[in-house]
Specification:
Layout lengths: L3 H26 L6 H16 L3 H29 L14
Length: 97
């Protein structure tokens, strides 16, 4: 039996779930203007996955990297959702000019 697919599926589910949480928290506390940081981090993880020989580790790096890149995109979308009133605005966060 091969459990690799099941393990990668579980990891993907956890990665996406964690992505939802960090996007909301980062936008609330810091703001969406930091989106390049996770985009670069995600790209670095995807590139690192290309040089890792172990298949499971390479796949998890790639999955997590793409999830982080997607989260960088979602930071901007999250800011729009806050503007629409779908999520709470942090009253202590100063607006960027």
């Amino acid at each position: 039996m091969q459990f690799t697919g099941v393990l990668l599926g579980i990891f993907t589910l956890l990665s996406i779930g964690l992505g939802h949480v960090w996007v909301i928290k980062v936008e609330y506390h810091i703001g969406a203007h930091v989106w390049p940081v996770p985009a670069i981090l995600g790209a670095a993880l995807v590139l690192a996955s290309l040089w890792v020989d172990h298949v499971l580790l390479s796949a998890t790096l790639g999955i997590f990297g793409v999830t982080v890149i997607w989260g960088a995109r979602e930071l901007v979308k999250q800011e729009e959702r806050v503007e629409r009133g779908w999520f709470p605005r942090n009253p202590r966060k100063r607006p960027r000019s």
